[in-house]
Amino acid sequence: MVTGQHTGMGTSAHEVVQVDIDERIGTIRLNRPEAHNALSNEVLRALPRAIEELEADDSVDVLVITGADPSFCAGLDLRQLSAGELDTRTTDGKGTPSRYRGALPPHTKPLIGAINGAAVTGGLEIALNCDFLIASERARFADTHARVGVMPGWGLSVMLPQAVGVRRARQMSLTGNYVDAATALAWGLVNEVVPHADLMARTRALASDMAHNDQDAVRELRSIYHDVTSTTVDEGWDIESARSRGWKNRSTPDRVQAVIDRGRSQPR
Asked: What is the CATH number assigned to the segment(s) 17-211?
């Protein structure tokens, strides 16, 4: 059952996407464990809505996405896909075309992926859309597009090479083989691997670290990273320089003093 505050998604344990808000952290849990959290039409409508609601909620600074054990997300619901019932282009169930590219709507708040189990194909693309990943020792990753005869449409061919390098990305995509948590760490796909029982505590600790920072600065830095990594190296230098100059214009005396006070309180 969802605990703490919620965003109107409902508090039933049967919700396919559960939302919990606690200590300025909004946690989204994919909740179809019997189907390994596969992306059904219902999930594809509820997940973007959850992110949009948390993005608009002033009581939330950081987002976390995870899955109900034993999996993170097995990708698209193959039963609905094979029956021609699955619509990955809509966000409201009424045929409205997607307003954004990729699996998730735009958001300014950091999003951490807490990968508790298998993240496969569409589930891997959701993970790649996170700012960074913390993995359970049980986590596994695979791109099975070639196995099932479909092509990625949520940015996998862009984001996977950014994470692991183009040759390793080709290996994953062309073989469809699984990569275990230890290999994912060695390849740079995940930031940390922790015991399964510690996954959410470690993820929440990192989210709390971010929530205690200057939120305007956190979101501006996240935006800069996004813009810089979406362009060439030379253009990236120009983007950072311009954004840095703009940030200085927002540095009021009160903000500067708050930064100084926060710095003095940081552990050494």
From this structure: 3.90.226.10
